[in-house]
C-alpha cells in the first residue's frame, strides 16, 4: 500500500512540473506562439562603446526576438581573445574600428564569408572585404585641421603639404602605433608606392611639433593651445568635440578650420568601423540577420546622427553638421588594401623614426 501511494504521488509531482514547464514556455513566447528557443541569440564582441549601438541592439531584439549578448573590450584585445579561443569561441560577431584590424582578424582565420544579397545591396563593394569576410558599417575621413588665425588654408591642401617647409615643427599627429595612422600610410603605399610613402612619412617626422602623444582630440586641443598649427584627425572626433559637454573641447574645435586633403588629385583617406561573422559562429543565421539589420537605412541613420560618422549605406545622408563641411572626393581604393599594406606601413614608420 505504501509503495502504491508513493508511485501515485510521484506521478502527480511529475504532472505538476510538466504543467509548470509548459506555462513558462508560454510566457516566454510571443503572440505567434513561437518560443524564445526558436528565436535564439547571438554573441557579439565589440570594440565600440557608444550608447547608440546598444539602442540599436535593443531594437533588433525587439523586432526579431533574438537576444544580443554583448562583450565589450579593446579592439586588439578582442582579436587576441578570438584567436586564443579558436573554434571553441562562443562569439558570433566581431565589431571593430578600422579596415586594417578587420583584415588582421581575417588573416588569422577568425572570420568567414557573409552570404547576403541584402548586405551586398546596402553596402558598396569598396566598403566590404573582397570575400565578404567583413562589412563596413560607418565611415570616417582622416582630415587635416588648422588654426584659423595662424594658417592660410591655401598652404595645406594635401597630405603632402604637411611635409613642406611651411609647417616645419608645426604638425601634431598621433603615434605610429595608432591604427588610423597606419591605415593612412597604407593608403599612400597603395597610391604612391613604398618609396613615395616612405618619403611622406619621413617628412611628417621632420615636421612634428613634438613627439606624438594622446588621441585625435588631444591633437586638436594642442593646436588650439599653440603647440602646433595643423593636426591630422578623424572627422567624427571633431564632430564630437563641437557637440561636447566639455567647454574646453568645444572652444578648441571652434578655432579649427577643416581641409579634406587631395581633392584635386587622389582624394581624402576614408576608413570604416565594420563587422565580421566569426569563423566560430554557432548562431550563423541569426548573426547574418543582425548584420543585415545594421546596414539598413534606419540603423545607418542612427549611427550617423549619434556619432557624427558618415553612413556606409549610400542611400543615407550624413548629419547636418557633416553636410555643412561639404561633399568631398574619397581615395579610390578598396579598403582591403589598407590591411594588406599594414605590415609595410609599420616597417616604414619604424624606419623613419615615427614614434
TrEMBL record:
Q: Which Pfam families match?
A: SBP_bac_6
Query: Which biological processes are named by the entry's GO terms?
Result: iron ion transport
Q: Does the keyword Protein transport apply?
A: no
Give yes or no: UniProt keyword Transport.
Answer: yes
Kindly list the positions annotated as binding Fe cation.
49, 236-237
Its cellular-component GO annotations read: outer membrane-bounded periplasmic space
Do you know which CDD domains this protein is assigned to?
PBP2_FutA1_ilke
Gene3D superfamilies for the chain? Periplasmic binding protein-like II (3.40.190.10)
| UniProt GO MF annotations | metal ion binding
**What highest taxon heads this organism's lineage?**
Bacteria
**Keywords assigned by UniProt, alphabetized:** Ion transport, Iron, Iron transport, Metal-binding, Signal, Transport
Signal sequence, renumbered to the chain? 1-20
PANTHER family per UniProt: IRON-UTILIZATION PERIPLASMIC PROTEIN, THIAMINE-BINDING PERIPLASMIC PROTEIN-RELATED
Q: Give the family per the record.
A: Belongs to the bacterial solute-binding protein 1 family.
Listed name of the protein: Iron(III) transport system substrate-binding protein
What is the source species?
Virgibacillus salinus
